[in-house]
Design brief:
Blueprint (H helix, E strand, L loop, with lengths): L2 H30 L9 H10 L35 E2 L3 E2 H5 L21 H10 L4 E2 L7 E8 L6 H12 L4 E4 L1 H6 L1 H9 L3 E4 L12 H19 L5 E2 L8 H9 L3 E3 L16 H10 L5 E6 L3 H16 L3 E3 L3
Parallel strand pairs: 3-8, 4-5, 4-9, 4-10, 5-6, 7-8
Antiparallel strand pairs: 1-2
Length: 326
């Protein structure tokens, strides 16, 4: 083959090889590029990375404590107005309690009664405060509920009253303060042994609505914890001293786990130096009988100790049954 022909053949082969290599490179580049919709910007990449962090890896300290109610209280049971802030007890936050009326309100049943001799003011207050589990009269159930307030012994009258109640087979609710719990352990033990309910009448005897939220809590919980520790008994009923209340007091007591009771009958029996006539008092008590009645008496009253047996008999003869507060 002539030299010129050989050179021509080499040139042709070289050109074919170059074209083939160029085509192969272009094909390779085209198949390696990702589709445009799969490409991401730095912002979207960062967002995707953050959302993939497991919840468990977020430090607990980064979650505000106020955003989570106590675990013992189902969220569904907490009013919407109380779902934020520091909880006082198990139901309500400090913010919610501070929003409630706190003016001290004295309580008297009044003289107005319905056709069944049930005090209408007590019925009205029941409806007003039932959302806080606060009661002034019990349901129209044919029963009478006897309660005593006891803060100290006087001339053996508390012991005498307990003996009469046992003799008559009547159980009642006895509201005590801390001084009674500390100073009369034998009577506290007898109260429990005889089947009575021991109830909370505060640590001392203040006008609760005049106190701060924290001091109200202390008044209720100090005696609560003392009785629980010393007598292994957890009180569940509460009555504010002298019956003075506010909406805030009822809400605090409920949030601390208490059901509150005032009364639908009482009279001035607490002044040991000015005790009323026995016969007149017995008539007053029996004339006021009504279904669902909550009688508030004081065990330091010599009049009460003298007539309670007769009152029990008269109440039963009138067709009523004595029962413990529900």
């Amino acid at each position: 083959m002539k030299a010129s022909s050989l050179r021509l053949l080499i040139l042709i082969l070289s050109a074919v090889l170059i074209v083939a290599l160029t085509f192969a490179i272009r094909l390779s580049d085209k198949t390696s590029d990702p589709p445009s919709q799969m490409q991401s910007t730095p912002e979207s990449s960062s967002s995707t990375q953050t959302s993939s962090i497991p919840v468990s890896s977020v430090p607990a300290s980064s979650i505000p404590a106020s955003s989570t109610p106590p675990t013992s209280v189902p969220v569904t049971s907490v009013p919407p107005t109380t779902l934020a802030g520091e909880y006082i007890g198990s139901l309500y936050t400090r913010e919610f309690l501070e929003s409630l009326p706190s003016k001290s309100t004295g309580y008297g049943v009044g003289k107005s009664v319905d056709s069944k001799n049930r005090p209408t003011y007590a019925i009205s207050l029941n409806k007003q405060y039932e959302k806080y589990d606060a009661h002034f009269i019990c349901p129209d159930d044919g029963k009478v509920y006897l309660t005593y307030n006891v803060t100290y012994e006087h001339e053996g009258l508390v012991q005498k009253t307990l003996n009469i109640l046992k003799e008559k087979n009547v159980q009642c609710v006895i509201f005590i303060d801390k001084s009674f719990a500390k100073n009369y352990p034998h009577m506290v033990q007898q109260i429990l042994a005889d089947g009575h309910i021991l109830a909370n009448h505060c640590t001392t005897h203040p006008d609760l609505p005049t106190l701060s939220i924290d001091k109200i809590v202390d008044q209720i919980m100090d005696i609560h914890n003392y009785v629980k520790d010393i007598y292994n008994y957890e009180m569940k009923f509460f009555r504010p001293p002298s019956g003075y209340f506010s909406e805030q007091v009822w809400a605090i007591a409920q949030s601390l786990g208490y059901r509150s009771y005032n009364w639908s009958f009482t009279y001035k029996d607490w002044d040991t130096n000015d005790q009323p006539d026995h016969a007149a008092t017995l008539k007053k008590m029996t004339d006021a009988l009504h279904s669902g009645a909550i009688y508030q008496l004081h065990a330091i009253s010599s009049t009460n100790a003298a007539i309670v047996g007769d009152f029990i008999d008269a109440t039963r003869n009138a067709g009523f049954e004595f029962a413990l507060l529900p």
